[in-house]
Design a protein that fits this description.
By secondary structure, the protein is an alpha/beta fold. It is built from 17 helices and 13 strands. The strands form three sheets. Strands 7, 8, 9, 10, 11 and 13 form a six-stranded mixed beta sheet that branches. The protein has a five-stranded mixed beta sheet with strand order 2-1-3-12-6. The radius of gyration is 27 Å and the shape is globular. The relative contact order is 0.16.
């Protein structure tokens, strides 16, 4: 009886030990599962600053052990990112414009080819996020820029959407005759002039091949008709724009345009958020910038706008990847993209659901296959802003010698292309 009792006690003790041991293991695993993780998230899309913070909060609610610190930086984004890279302080998730900019930061970028979202990337967005046959980022959205116009003014004077440069000038003349300033020119911003001049690149027959020819010296900006045509359109916008175009950055330009006394402004789909806050009842649309009298050559400049990357220096790469997958697979993540940000989706199986009328117009150009590339991510590093500064010099000098400006752009391209090799 004693032996049996002892045996039972031993068995009980062993069982208790096993339970305690299991409890410790379970507790340890739970501790690992619930390890507090802080991700630093940095991007340049200021138009989605609040939305991305809401997205972070939604992810945190579903994953209580994760905190996402969001930093949204506008004009100085790349300066800050380069400083962080050089000091070994890269954020866990960061943004580029894709294409060449991936090369600039390739030593910090994680290969995500094995992630679930990869198969759902839209065909038109894959090249932007690829490097050496690997997918290294999640495309945020498709986007576009062109001429934003006041629909009420166009309706009031029975103006049709211009599809040629002659039609655009006739629209300007009609507006001028009726004391409406045709263009609000936002040329204090060099980046916007860089985007504007992309239309010269987007309108060549094969943009990618053309850029390669510029890099090898087989082509010159000053010898390219599409570049000359774009300078003529710039001259037209200056002729029919407000005085002192270099005094107006986005805030000033948006305020002027929203007053309803100026009919058009060169901008992107992101402009709607600001315009609608100032003038919520204003009816606006967007059309492609015409640069020739051949309507078939008039295409909307559209492409991926923003790519999220996971830094290979991150201590929490798996969590960062999970956030990106969550954005395109979960209901809350999709709501962030399609309802809060109202993006033109860059993923298969998603449809544009937003109310942004500029996005609707760009989405239609994309659906019609009537678009050209956003080529600035393929340019030599620095050409984007520096080309805008060259155009600012042209404007400040009275926009007289466009040939000299084009030659200076060639010199700038050669200098920066050599520095980036």
């Amino acid at each position: 009886m004693k032996k049996k009792l002892v045996s039972l006690l031993l068995i009980g003790a062993m069982a208790a030990t096993m339970v305690v041991g299991c409890g410790k293991t379970s507790s340890s695993e739970g501790s690992r599962d619930e390890e507090q993780v802080t991700l630093r998230w940095m991007q340049f899309q200021v138009e989605y600053a609040e939305q991305v913070k809401n997205m972070a909060a939604a992810y945190e609610e579903e994953h209580p052990n994760v905190k996402i610190e969001v930093e949204v930086i506008g004009d100085d984004y790349y300066d800050v990112l380069k400083t962080k890279a050089s000091s070994g302080d890269m954020p866990d998730v960061f943004m580029t414009a894709g294409y060449n900019e991936i090369n600039t930061y390739k030593e910090y970028i994680t290969d995500m080819s094995d992630q679930a979202f990869v198969d759902n990337i839209a065909d038109g967005a894959k090249e932007c996020v690829s490097l050496d046959d690997k997918v290294v980022g999640l495309p945020v959205q498709m986007s576009g820029n062109g001429i934003v116009y006041n629909k009420e003014i166009f309706d009031q004077y029975n103006l049709e959407i211009p599809t040629t440069v002659s039609e655009l000038e006739n629209v300007c003349k009609t507006l001028k005759e009726n004391d409406i300033t045709p263009f609000t020119n936002q040329f204090k911003d060099d980046w916007l002039l860089g985007q504007f001049y992309n239309y010269g690149f987007a309108n060549v027959e094969d943009t990618v091949s053309y850029i390669e020819s510029l890099k090898t010296g087989d082509a010159k900006i000053a010898d390219t008709q599409e570049m000359k045509d774009t300078m003529k359109v710039l001259d037209m916008m200056l002729k029919y724009g407000q005085d002192k175009p270099l005094d107006a950055g986005w805030n000033e330009a948006a305020a002027m345009f929203a007053q309803g006394k100026q009919a058009m402004i060169f901008e992107g789909i992101w402009a709607y958020d600001t315009i609608s806050q100032i003038a919520p009842d204003m009816q606006v649309g967007m059309f492609a910038l015409p640069t020739t009298d051949d309507a078939e050559q008039t295409k909307m400049a559209a492409d991926v706008n923003g790519v999220w990357h996971v830094s290979n220096t991150s201590k929490h790469q798996d969590v960062a990847k999970d956030v990106l997958n969550w954005i395109v697979t979960s209901d809350a993540g999709k709501d962030f993209l399609l309802k809060e940000c109202q993006v033109i989706p860059a993923m298969k199986g998603m449809e544009f659901e937003g109310s942004n009328p500029l996005s609707k117009d760009v989405a239609q150009y994309i659906e019609d296959g009537n678009t050209g590339l956003w080529s600035w991510p393929l340019w030599p590093d620095g050409f984007y802003n520096e080309s805008g500064k060259k155009l600012q010099e042209y404007i400040s000098n009275g926009n007289g010698d466009s040939e000299a400006t084009l030659q200076s752009l060639d010199e700038l391209w050669t200098k920066l292309a050599g520095a980036n090799q």
